[in-house]
Input
Amino acid sequence: MESSSKMPHGESEWRDKLGPERYYVCRMKGTEAPFSGKLWDEHRKGTYHCVGCGTPLFRSETKYDSGSGWPSFMDLIDQKRVERRTDSSHGMIRTELLCARCGCHLGHLFEDGPQPTGLRYCINSVSLKFIAATS
Output
């Protein structure tokens, strides 16, 4: 598993590493506005990694246009790389997704995706780093 050379230990280090918008989403569990992130409309082949620690999370082959305005994927590279938690904020119950290695908030999981999984991993663009395939 790829990772950054040094993962921040305290919140001030996270603020410095991520910057204001990424800090708000990744550490404060915020959400970017739909259709505002640079990766929702990304169509190149490659891999999507956690912005906090560099863990590879999604392959471009599992990305699809859900119409939601956020990058959406139907499957993970490895289920153990993402932690699931119940999120009862905003008057609804959802499944929150966090990077299992560094705890960065990624987005939410919904059961309205395409087959074969039927899942939609709805992820904030700012929570991800896209690495394009070289060949």
